[in-house]
Amino acid sequence: MNLKTTLLSCALLCLFTACGAPAQEKQRKNQLFVQEIPVPAREGSVVPNLFVTEDEQLYMSWIEPENDSTHVLRFSKLENGRWTTPKTIAQGSNWFVNWADFPSLAVGTDGTITAHWLVKRTSETYDYDVYVSQSSDQGNTWKQPFILHTDGVAAEHGFVALVALPDNSIFATWLDGRNTKNEAQAESHEAHGMGPMSLRAAKMDTEGKVYDAMEMDEKVCDCCQTDAALTSGGLVVVYRNRSDNETRDIYLMREVNGQWTDPAPVHDDGWEIAGCPVNGPAIDAYDQNVAIAWFTGAHEQPKVQVAFSKDAGASFSPPLHIDHGDPLGRVDVVVLEDASAWVSWMEGTTEGAAIMAVHVSEEGTKLTTQTIASTNPSRASGFPVMERAGNHLYFAWTQVDSVSSLRTAYLLLEE
Questions:
Q1: Rg of the chain (C-alpha set)
Q2: CA distances from 99 to 79, 103, 239 (A)
Q3: What three-state secondary structure class fits 180?
Q4: Residues 162/170, Cβ–Cβ less than 8 Å
Q5: How many angstroms from the chain centroid is the CA of residue 270?
Q6: Distance CA 302, CA 295 (A)
Q7: DSSP letter string, 73-117
Q8: Sheet holding 341-348, edge to edge
């Protein structure tokens, strides 16, 4: 190669490199990388749940085995990128531990931690109560537990959602099976009976006083998760409803000027199913902006969908279909300041399943799709959860191998 040819080749190489560098740099900048955080939990731990405070402190609760007959509810706080040494909330040998109906905690404005878990009332599988305890010293000690509901009926009570309110109280909504037993059944502890599952709600103060208890909806789906969020216009509760013809679509109720609206559909999917799909909705809010994500199997076309509201849940955009064609559901959602949202779900794959997340603009544009982790499609893998703190989007899930374990990871969002 002569000198002229060499100089021309070098010039072309520099030109192509210079032209390609910005595009490559932009591509790298738009990529998000999943970074795992080790969890200080025992093997066999299950059902992690996340909660983020107003000042963006992240907490995680979970259940781990103490021995063959005893379970322990523990929690940890993320500090300097690491989970702190776990603290024990409660333990017992008569708990109802279930892949879909799992404990949670919420932290009030004064730092009081409120946690719930499920305890069997009788030997019947679905006769269990919602127990609650509170801590005012960062979880070092816990007050005497109390039962959230006061009906005293041996029936199913669970699928609880907790929201910390500005007045330092905690709002709770849950599925309540007191009407599934008639009086004779309640006394004899017989299994599922006459009436439908209902949706109920109440508030708790920091002294464990339960007040403003009420029935929200007298007939709802039996075993799908509930969820709730606080908008600038008030609380919004979402759940899977149940009509007389077994249509089980997602409904919501809003708190407006201290009063609750009538139940209303988020969207008329028209999913008729004579049984509970065990796949509830998720909601999040920022100011007036709300996003709801849910799974539907209507018309034999399984979908994960998300819909947006700009008016604190009074109205919603048409739903956006976000999955990749083989969704298992198990959704979560986080709303950002710009009214966009991240939605997570489980998607079937040729190897099993994957935890997926997609960033969607308020207008319905998919901005980024991310695979968080491979997972097991079985019930044992539970429901992955997601929360945002600062410019990090955190995920927690149960990893099922020869023995279950907890995994957490985050995505670093753009500043």
A1: 23
A2: 28, 10, 18
A3: helix
A4: yes
A5: 24
A6: 7
A7: EEEEEEETTEEPPPEEEEEESSB---SSS--EEEE-TTS-EEEEE
A8: 327-335, 341-348, 353-360, 366-375
**CA dihedral angle for residue 321, residue 381, residue 201, residue 282, rounded to 10 degrees:** -20
Residues 6+ apart with CB under 8 A from 48: 39, 60, 61, 62, 382, 385, 396, 397, 398, 406, 408
Q: Which helix (H) or strand (E) holds 356?
A: strand 353-360
Interatomic CA distance for residues 307 and 266, integer angstroms: 8
- Each residue's pLDDT tens digit, 309-352: 999 999 999 999 999 999 999 999 999 999 999 999 999 999 99
Structure tokens at 293: 């994500």
| Of 305, 320, 312, nearest in space to 290 by CA | 312
pLDDT in tens, 48-61: 999 999 999 999 99
Phi first, then psi: give them for residue 168, nearest 5 degrees.
80, 5
Are 407 and 62 a contacting pair, CB within 8 Å?
A: no
Amino acid identity, position 317: S
Backbone angles phi, psi at 263, to 5 degrees: -60, 140
Closest by Cα among 36, 124, 104 to 407? 36
CB atoms within 10 A of CB 5: 9
